[in-house]
Amino acid sequence: MPNTLQKLAAEFLGTFAFVFFAAGAVCAERVPQGSGAGGLGVALVAGLSIAVLSAALAPVSAQFNPAVTVGLWITKRINTLEAFSYWIAQILGGMAAAFFLKAVLPREESWLPVLGGTPDLARDFARLPALGLEGLITFFLVFVYFATRSEEGVESRYGSAFAVGLVYTLGIVVAGPLTGAALNPARAFGPALASAHFANQGVYWVGPLAGGFLAGLAYDALYARRRPAA
Fold this sequence. Notes:
Blueprint: H1 4-28, H2 38-57, H3 66-74, H4 80-104, H5 107-111, H6 127-148, H7 155-179, H8 185-195, H9 201-222
Helix pairs in contact: 1-2, 1-4, 1-8, 2-7, 3-4, 3-9, 4-8, 6-7, 6-9, 8-9
């Protein structure tokens, strides 16, 4: 059974990797000699990074998203202290990845034009629909996490890792051009802090956290198995 330090280290490393690859892919699109993978390529990079890291760390801890953590907390799968500990590890992982990218990427060519991959709203796309879009996609992301993750064993969590990664990919394809598709407060906050660009940060916190909160409640209300009374 993994101890608390191992779980927190897994959350830090997994979130670091996700933000590094997801934000790094956005930055790499700006390099003139880049691959030109486009929006679909950026979505695949983010989804595959979540899938691979979640599969690798499934036996330890593989949430990597405060919205997943809040869903686990509201359904009493983790306690309040655990939830805050995971949040801190996830946010620190996102921050570390963003500052690492800032340190190694060409500043003028790739970092500054996209503010280190910081998500932001498309012109004329209002905050309320953006919040709803981020929240709805994160709802399905967390719902799939619950639906594919076995309570009894680790084995099913490998399949869950790839299912959740696919939801990330689909969500970024749909919402990326409109909101930047963070779907994860740690993904939004790390690059925002590194680039000192905090516009519309509330969208990337309230929307995903509300989506994760409601997804946990909805899954338990609809499908969670009830233990027989003693």
